[in-house]
Design brief:
By secondary structure, this protein is an alpha+beta fold. The chain has three domains: 129-376, Distorted Sandwich (Beta-galactosidase, Chain A, domain 5); 416-764, Glycosyltransferase (Alpha/alpha barrel), CATH 1.50.10.10; 766-879, Maltose phosphorylase, domain 3. It has 20 helices and 40 strands. Strands 5-11-12-13-14-22-18-17-16-20 form a ten-stranded antiparallel beta sheet, covered by helices on one side. Strands 31, 32, 33, 34, 35, 36, 37, 38, 39 and 40 form a ten-stranded mixed beta sheet that branches. Strands 10-9-15-21-19 form a five-stranded antiparallel beta sheet. A hairpin with a 5-residue loop joins strand 7 and strand 8. It is globular and about 85 Å long. Pfam families: DUF608, Glyco_hydr_116N. Residues 62-369 form the Glycosyl-hydrolase family 116 N-terminal domain. Its EC number is 3.2.1.-.
């Protein structure tokens, strides 16, 4: 491949050493597109993505393994924790602003903050502000072997990248034992409190494969680094303390007594505890093996703050031949002082409502370990093991929710959720970014409901109906954010058990919709006001992606108005959508794709997308599929637009494009594929109206959140080959050989928009849900003859399965957690043949049903609402 140089925001990169990972997948007849063989492979169930030491794939792995809204702790590929962004530092959005990105990396600063894409090009690694780890000593046949969780100690380490619970296998062919490790923080969809614990759990599984008894000792240690930044004076000391409580043993890091320091951002403590019997606690450990595995040091130690102060816990177990044992450990932290300069009345983290120290967090987990661990494992089994969807697809569409367990996302003691766009980047839970993120609304809907009500319709709401797009931080409206938050209100209503949320918030919701209606200045149903949008400019004219998004929001308004019996407003919304739809399809469709019609007075003299092929041009229709609104934009024109994006914007190698299109942040490098934001099929000299606007650089980038959005839309429209190819291309860009698989970068790390990936999962399942109505629907886009998928609802989650056996179709709903209130189930057959007989059972009881068939679609209604519970499956059998 030809060497390419690329200038991006102040740094120059030489890509001559990069290899093209896509050469094996390119179509020989059209190298810009993937080969049919590669496309076919995307549908294979496969196995969990596993990264290996021997392939040099561990160094960049950083899986967030703390609770949501609790700071960020990374799990490394070797099993050690790193980064430790838990000290509430650098929450101003200007962290190290004047420090060159390469110096940040060289100086090992414990932040991931450059906004220019540098972390994509040269990912950070090995940031370890404190010492932590585990060692194992194996005694067998008169031998004694000590192994640390370090890559150099093992023949092989395999990291199975299945968020929220990673599996790591440590391999040494000379040992008589097999060692594996599960690392996670409790993660239970719908339970945002137990999913928000500042804790990481280590579960070792040790299997004795020999014919003799083997003794294994495990020791874990942790450095006391409380007040890591502020305790810089000789007068301050730290100490460790052992607190035995039956099988509960811990190391508590005790801070100084000066009350003034209790308000510092890094004030707090740690706890390391063993959940195993006969634990030995060492409060003055060193990393010398003979001390780590030696006798208990019963006396607490006191050392200067600037010395390494370790605490350790140790267990020894005798494992009989062919027996497997498990040892569990918990590491917790407590750094309560969280504050932002734009929010004056929020100063504490949410977990302070329940706990007063890291030790209390540890005690809670010890007391509830069976529930917390069991429900987390049940979710992982439901998501990964019990699905027929490809493992890689399940991984990529879920793992971005780990953003909630980074310092992108926070939760105050009041319960309020607050977030950056990415880590430390752009304050205020920005509406025009967060409205792309579909994951939290489905997995933790209570957080989204509260954000709609408390922030969008609260702190950020104005009398004229506009929603400040960064709440207190910036009160001006963003037109795409306004529409997205209206759609979010509809989604949050659907993810509720009843209609109380909608009824309570309808007056303000209606005014927010009316504000959108007013942005159509000429009365043709197409918004044309110059308001902020996610590409950081106020574009004049009628812009397809903004017009379509607003039409979809108003359509949601029509549906909500009908539900609250506001017939007059429902009629206003319906008329607006009909008029705008006609205008969009007649005036903004150029015969192949949708465009930006310039303002008649200004023409193409100011920044805009104009006749370019823009990635979000039919985004409104994409949103419609997320909330079951059906068709907003003509199907054939929409498909034409998506095919144009595939034709003009998607490439298997961005290198040739970047040789002639300069500027932009490097979120895809030469040799990597992606879908470009904007291309100019008409090859205009100045396609964006101006040459020098800095926002033009966005158009040459591959930003994964937008890619996930359009991929999910493609899947919804039946373009599954193309949709899967786009997502798999992102998945490959974040392969651990090159960068952190758990950190999709866009204007800083762990960017919220990437949670649009969950929307692709929604559309792959053809899933829609309306909790207050008790309705759920599935229409999988492939493998319809035998398909199983996880689902979430307002009060529970579980699996949906369908299969065809001869002339029989079976549809089954299993609740794995909570419950599901159901009045109607809608499914699809493989053909339109009429159903001759339909039966339904709930648990072991037959229940009456009413069937309505429309071609392949079967709507099964129950005369009364049923409550599905765990171990009480619903089974519907259709005879044709």
């Amino acid at each position: 491949m030809k060497a390419t140089s690329f200038s991006a925001t102040g740094f120059l990169l030489d890509f001559s050493s990069l290899t093209n990972r896509f050469l094996s997948v390119q179509d020989k007849s059209d190298p810009t597109k993937p080969s049919p063989e590669w496309i076919k492979s995307l549908y294979e169930r496969g196995a969990p993505t596993t990264y290996r030491k021997t392939k040099n794939e561990l160094q960049y792995i950083g899986m967030p393994v703390g609770g949501i809204g609790c700071g960020c702790v990374y799990l490394g590929g070797d099993g050690r924790l790193w980064l430790w962004d838990i000290f509430n530092k650098n929450q101003t959005g200007v962290v190290y602003k004047d420090v060159p990105w390469h110096e940040k990396i060289q100086n090992n600063l414990s932040v991931l903050r450059p906004f220019d894409g540098a972390n994509y090009v040269e990912p950070v690694k090995d940031i370890r502000p404190l010492e932590q780890g585990f060692s194992l000593k194996i005694d067998y046949e008169g031998k004694s072997v000590t192994k640390r969780l370090l890559a150099e100690d093992w023949d092989e380490i395999e990291f199975e990248a299945t968020y929220p619970m990673a599996t790591i296998r440590y391999i040494d062919a000379t040992l008589p034992v097999q060692i594996s490790l599960h690392v996670y923080s409790p993660f239970i969809p719908l339970d945002e409190t137990n999913s928000g614990l500042p804790a990481t759990i280590y579960s070792f599984t040790i299997a004795n494969k020999s014919q003799a008894v083997v003794t294994v000792s495990v020791v874990g240690w942790l450095e006391n680094k409380a007040a890591i930044y502020t305790a810089i004076d000789d007068q301050y000391t730290k100490s460790n303390k052992a607190v035995p409580n039956g099988v509960f043993s811990s190391v508590i890091n005790k801070n100084w007594a000066d009350d003034a320091y209790s308000f510092k951002a890094d004030y707090g403590n740690f706890c390391l505890l063993s959940l195993n019997p006969s634990t030995v606690v060492n409060t003055a450990a060193t990393l010398a093996p003979d001390v780590l595995f030696g006798p208990e040091n019963a006396q607490p130690s006191t050392k200067r703050f600037d010395e390494i102060l370790l605490g350790a816990v140790r267990n020894a177990v005798q494992i009989p031949a062919n027996v497997t044992t498990e040892l569990n450990y918990v590491l917790t932290w407590y750094f309560p002082n969280l504050s932002f300069h734009s929010i004056k009345n929020e100063t504490k983290r949410y977990y302070t409502n329940q706990f007063k120290s890291a030790a209390e967090v540890g005690a809670y987990i010890q007391q509830n370990f069976g529930k917390l661990s069991g429900e987390t494992k049940t979710w992982c089994q439901t998501w990964y093991d019990q699905s027929t969807l490809p493992y890689w697809f399940l991984e990529r569409t879920l793992l971005n929710v780990s953003t909630l367990a980074t310092t992108t996302a926070h939760r105050f003691s009041s319960g309020r959720f607050y977030a950056w766009e990415g880590v430390g980047s752009c304050a205020g839970t920005c509406t025009h970014v967060w409205q792309y993120a579909q994951a939290m609304g489905r997995l933790f809907p209570a957080l989204e409901r509260d954000t709609r009500e408390r922030v969008d319709l609260g702190f950020g709401f104005h009398e004229d109906g506009h929603i400040g797009f960064r709440a207190e931080y910036d009160q001006q409206p963003a037109i795409d954010g306004q529409a997205g938050r209206i759609l979010g209100i509809y989604r949050e209503h659907q993810m509720s058990a009843n209609d109380e949320f909608l009824k309570r918030n309808w007056p303000k919701t209606k005014r927010a919709i009316e504000y959108v209606l007013k942005q159509d200045r000429n009365g043709n149903g197409m918004v044309d006001s110059q308001l902020e949008n996610t590409l950081d400019a106020k574009w004049p004219g009628e812009i397809a992606w903004l017009v379509g998004l607003c039409l979809t929001a108003v359509k949601a308004g029509e549906c909500m108005a009908e539900e609250v019996n506001d017939a007059d407003f429902a009629a206003v919304c319906k008329a607006f959508v009909e008029k705008g739809k006609a205008g969009m399809e007649s005036q903004l469709f150029n015969g192949e794709y949708f465009i930006h019609l310039p303002d008649p007075k200004l023409g193409k003299t100011v920044l805009g997308s104009y006749d370019t092929c823009h990635i979000d041009q039919v985004y409104g229709q994409s949103w419609a599929f997320q909330v079951g609104l059906g068709r907003i934009i003509d199907q054939q024109k929409t498909l034409s637009a998506l095919r144009a994006l595939w034709k003009y914007n998607f490439v298997t190698d961005v290198g040739p494009y970047l040789t002639s299109h300069h500027g932009g942040r490097p979120y895809a490098l030469p040799g990597e594929g992606g879908m470009l934001m904007n291309t100019s099929p008409t090859n205009e000299t100045i396609p964006y109206g101006v040459k020098d606007a800095w926002q033009v650089t966005y158009f040459h980038e591959c930003m994964s959140g937008f890619e996930h959005q359009v991929a999910g839309h493609m899947i919804a429209e039946g373009m599954t080959d193309e949709g899967l190819a786009v997502i798999k291309t992102v998945h490959d860009r974040y392969h651990a050989a090159k960068r952190n698989p758990f950190n999709e970068v866009e204007c800083s790390d762990h960017y919220a928009r990437a949670m649009a990936s969950y929307g692709a999962f929604i559309t792959a399942c053809g899933y829609t849900y309306h909790g207050p109505k008790g309705e759920i629907s599935f229409a999988p886009k492939w493998n319809t003859g035998k398909f199983t998928t996880p689902f979430t609802a307002a009060e529970g989650w579980g699996t949906y399965a369908q299969q065809k056996q001869g002339k029989l179709y079976e549809y089954r709903v299993d609740v794995k957690y909570g419950s599901l209130q159901l009045e109607q189930l809608t499914v699809e057959k493989n053909d339109a043949k009429p159903a001759k007989k339909v039966t339904a059972t709930l648990g072991d009881q037959s229940i009456p049903i009413q069937l309505k068939q429309n071609a392949k679609t079967l709507t099964i209604k129950f005369p009364t609402r049923h409550k599905l519970q765990v171990n009480q499956p619903l089974l519907v059998v259709v005879h044709t």
